[in-house]
Prior knowledge:
Rossmann fold, 227 residues
Amino acid sequence: xxxILIVEDEHAIADIVAFNLNREGxxxxxxxxxxxxLEKALGEEFDLILLDVMLPGLDGWEVLxxxxxxxxxPVIMLTAREEELDKIHGLELGADDxxxxxxxxxxxKARIRxxxxxxxxxxxxxxxxxxxxxxxxxxxxxxxxxxxxxxELTAKEYALLLFLMEHxxxxxxxxxxxxxxxxxxxxxxxxxxxxxxxxxxREKVEDDPGNPDFILTKRGAGYYMEx
Length: 227
Ligand code: CA
């Protein structure tokens, strides 16, 4: 059973989300402010965290930055529609996904499934794949190391890098990556998400992020890794 932490100060929203997720078979825990949310997120094991932005105590950004220093658990940010830019800010800080309020339960459940599925899928295999002798994937541990050093990747960064490694030689547009890695369809996806995540990944993977060797840009087409 997957455990989900809901960090949300609006009780009506937290309760209805918890109710619906429990009915789907998830175990949930609600934290009504940022400080408690961070404490729970660091102190207990969760498979996924839903994190509101506007919170008393620490806000969602502060919780996310502090959390990312220690844990790579998938985080879905809950943002208000007027906080359009926050999506990008959240992704830069290490969020894996976002959902805009007001959202439907079906939308939320789909996003949760998409983020958990990547994790489950990645846990299946145990083989090690090498990339130019420098990048090595350990599927069982969901880790990718570079030159023998484990990269500190979030679940989404791992999924994106793994996807590009497994499809070396093919160029993918932002829309295709949104569909394949985020499982966004149509208007739900914002292609800037892909650029932010690629930038974040390059900072972790490349020797010189401004002059990448691994994750390459095909101008006007998208991103790829060399075969
Ligand atoms: Ca709030």
